[in-house]
Amino acid sequence: MQMFLSLRMFTFLCCLLFIANSAPKSYASNTSQEFQYFCDEKNITLDIEGNYTTNSTYHTNLNTLLSNIVNNKEIDYGFYNFSYGDFPNRVYAIGLCRGDIKTDQCRDCLNQSRANLTAVCPNRKVAIGWYDDEICMLRYSNRSIFDRMDNGPAYYKHNDNKTKDLNEFNKKLNDLLNGLKSKASSGDSKSKYAVGNFSLSDFDHVYGLVQCTPDLSGTDCEDCIAQSIERIPKDCCKDDIGGRVVRPSCFLRFETSYQFYGETAYRRPPPPTSPPSSGSGGKSHNSLIIAITVSIVAVIVIVIIFTRIYQRKRKQRKSRSNEDDTEDIKIVESLLFNLDSIRDATNDFSDDNKLGQGGFGAVYKGILSDGQEIAVKRLVSSSCQGDVEFKNEVLLLAKLQHRNLVRLLGFCLEGRERLLIYEFVPNKSLDYFIFDPTKSANLDWESRWRIIEGIARGLLYLHVDSRLRIIHRDLKAANILLDEEMNPKISDFGTAKLFAIDQTHSDTNKIVGTYGYMAPEYQFFGQISIKSDMYSFGILVLEIVSGEKSGGDRHRENLETLTNFVWRNWKDGTVTNIVDAKLNNCSQNEIMRCIHIALLCVQANEADRPTIDTVLLMLNSHTVPLAVPSEPAFLLNSSWDYVSMETRSNTSTNRPAQESVNEASITKPYPR
């Protein structure tokens, strides 16, 4: 029966992803008949149970999801990434087959993996396994594992035999794997896979293979493989004629004298090619005549149809406008909540359900009749914004869909009540953890780094990837919410500024946001750009690394801002004074790099600050060089000292009022 282990035995590694840094083991290549697994009892960092009970909702969702993967006959490129169920029992899974494995064999392998993985890791919420020779990988978790690079858990195999000419072998192997790395990372969302070989002597060839999960970005794929290549002389197979480094997000393998892979199963569609040119002079002459004739005919046809298109242009524009309006009306209607249902969900906005109070209104926890948990922001009634503007802004927020942004579920507009209904994020805001001496102990460096990266990815969506460029204008620790897995979600878009996609700057007389996070050019002159958010991001990173508020009591007692404190220690070479004492035993290189990047973001001259896509590149690739930061804004005894702040602030408020586009906000804005 197929449910039993075949002669090509199943090689497994299963464990919770939070033990990614556990010391991996190395196995000789002749142990392919074995399988290894690690199963931890619970996620120690968040104290969440790592087991599910038999026949529970999670167990049912897991079985359904794995069944959907192995029975999927529409995917023919060997990569499956699906999720199933609702929080807290949502299950995420990835199935990946080696690039040379055919579709039917791939599904058989995943089906076999499903049976064996659930057997060797019973009742575990998080598991990962590789079938013999890594022909397929199956992985599932109770947290999202999509679009992210995970380096661990990892395992290594090697061939004990040594090569004769070490220098030639190692150089050629390194060149081969680095070439395959570049080729695989340039793949598409269906396949990031590359194979190749080189000749070692007249008789031997060395064959290499690299592959990433296709949901990775090209940069993440390249970094994952690069880090795997670095492990070859350290943990895997120094000077050996064969070896492999296997990780959740990528793997590589090389062997000498035999080709261990077959013909590539999935090939990307080739780009369109031009017709071949003729080598004959007569044919070239005829081709030229044909080309000229075709061009003349094409011009005549274009002139004829242009007139008709011009005549229909206004009608088409009007038709599109009506269609867009109709679609927007449908979206708004689908987002509309009944006031009575929200009152029932929040127990009539009782104080027991109150989550917090902000400048724009109170936030309440609610539970809808179907059991869904929500967060309801009850806006202050002093807003002068009209109903149409309110609905337009709700429509904009509803279209912002990203895992690092809090999702707007709907709104309510009845009488004097204006309510915004968001997804409920259980772990409160970042400031609740990072500035509390007790709770901050639960945020190790891995968690803090993940929060920094998540905030950056959310900003990348707002600044670059969304249909319209959005400047948040109030990025701070209190507006970063943390989900059940401590992943960050940017919230509170009440002060957000809408830019056209090619717009870079804007001016305003309404200065909104939070002092300590506002860029100088914005706070004093009302100049808004994406670099305003980058300044706030830099302050956030410094707070996360140091555990200190940007205007914390410790610094205010001696009139020293957080940026002043960091810059002074940076110049003096005492950077360790900046780091939260709870992180002393953590990755110093990564922490120092984050401080360096933050200082680049808080430079006084906005033109010197990096954009968010550059910041993400610097965070995820240690090979990208960092510029030398110049003096930050808001330093004592600098061009942005407290005297000049006061003077310039007064000057800015006296300049003539000027309306700015899209200035309307959900509530009447004021600094808070």
Automatic annotation (TrEMBL):
Recorded topology in the membrane: Single-pass membrane protein
Leader peptide range in chain numbering: 1-28
Biased composition (Polar residues): 647-665
Residues that bind ATP: 377
Membrane-crossing residue ranges in chain numbering: 288-310
The keyword Transferase is annotated on this UniProt entry: yes
Occurrences of domain Gnk2-homologous (ranges): 40-145, 151-259
CDD domains (alphabetical): Gnk2-like, STKc_IRAK
Keywords tagged on the record: ATP-binding, Glycoprotein, Kinase, Membrane, Nucleotide-binding, Receptor, Repeat, Serine/threonine-protein kinase, Signal, Transferase, Transmembrane, Transmembrane helix
Subcellular location: Membrane
Gene3D superfamilies: Gnk2 domain, C-X8-C-X2-C motif, Phosphorylase Kinase, domain 1, Transferase(Phosphotransferase) domain 1
Keyword rRNA processing set for record: no
Domain Protein kinase: 349-625
PROSITE patterns cross-referenced by the UniProt entry: GNK2, PROTEIN_KINASE_ATP, PROTEIN_KINASE_DOM, PROTEIN_KINASE_ST
SUPFAM superfamilies xrefs: Protein kinase-like (PK-like) (SSF56112)
Region feature Disordered, mapped onto this chain: 647-672
Record PANTHER family: CYSTEINE-RICH RECEPTOR-LIKE PROTEIN KINASE 27-RELATED, RECEPTOR-LIKE SERINE/THREONINE-PROTEIN KINASE SD1-8
Protein's name in the database: Cysteine-rich receptor-like protein kinase 29
Biological source species: Stylosanthes scabra
